[in-house]
Design goal:
Length: 258
């Protein structure tokens, strides 16, 4: 066992969470209560999932419902991060996540690499959904921030004859590409800087180092594919005006968005 779950474990977690919240407050990085809430929420959710997962894996319908719940939470989270009120179109965040994750999971199931069993399908899908969520949020936020900062360049593009989609793409594409950096860095440095969870978990479960490494490599490559699709789809939605922070925008401007 990697960690003993006891009173000391709980005390250390509480101290670390308090430290994180204190640093956030002192450095004015946001609201300390958000950090405390995130930690407390994570604890409650993990306890709940630990209790439910053993029941869910026994039934395929329940398993599918659980996966849909994971997806719905990811969509809501991404939408709120990318398009805060009073913006419109947050529900479009579900498109890049689904477009990225669904084909990969389907391919894994059809080829038999991942059986339709909760003990395998849930963590694999969760990792992929999490990667797509991160890429969607980063690509969406960076693209929208860039469009706001460089609005004059978008107008200049329109002035020389570009349709609005093309003008937005020219400005936002490089910024949205930054969403791929965390995944790229993790893949490039795996084994040298970090030993990711899948690798460590399999070693603790008794797998050989070679088998654990193969599984971790599979996860990393799958994440690269998922994050690339999610970022590209998010950029396209932003360029078409489907995702916007302006309350008056949720659809592209007629005749200008290509």
């Amino acid at each position: 066992m990697l960690l003993d779950v006891n009173v000391t474990f709980g005390a250390v977690l509480a101290v670390l969470l308090a430290l994180a919240a204190s640093v956030v407050a002192l450095a004015h990085l946001g609201r300390a209560r958000d950090t405390l809430f995130a930690g407390a929420r994570a604890a409650v959710q993990l306890v709940a999932v630990s209790l439910v997962i053993g029941w869910v894996v026994r039934s395929v319908p329940l398993l599918l419902c659980f996966l849909l719940l994971m997806y719905a939470v990811a969509v809501r989270t991404a939408g709120r991060r990318v398009v805060p009120a009073p913006g419109r179109g947050w529900w479009w965040a579900g498109v890049p996540i689904a477009a990225a994750v669904a084909p990969v999971v389907l391919a894994l199931v059809v080829t038999g690499l991942v059986p339709v069993k909760g003990i395998t399908l849930v963590p694999v899908t969760g990792i992929l959904v999490g990667g797509a969520l991160t890429a969607t949020v980063l690509a969406g936020r960076r693209a929208l921030d860039e469009l706001k900062t460089r609005r004059g360049e978008v107008e200049a593009g329109l002035a020389i004859g570009l349709v609005e989609r093309e003008a937005r793409l020219e400005v936002a594409r490089k910024a949205a590409a930054d969403a791929l950096l965390p995944g790229m860095d993790q893949t490039r440095t795996v084994g040298l800087v970090t030993l990711p969870g899948a690798f460590v978990g399999m070693l603790l479960g008794g797998a050989s180092p070679l088998h654990a490494g193969a599984v971790q490599l599979f996860v990393l490559i799958a994440l690269l594919a998922v994050q690339a699709v999610a970022a590209a789809t998010t950029l396209e939605l932003v360029a078409r005006g489907r995702i916007s922070r302006e309350s008056g925008e949720g659809e592209p401007t007629p005749g200008r968005s290509g």
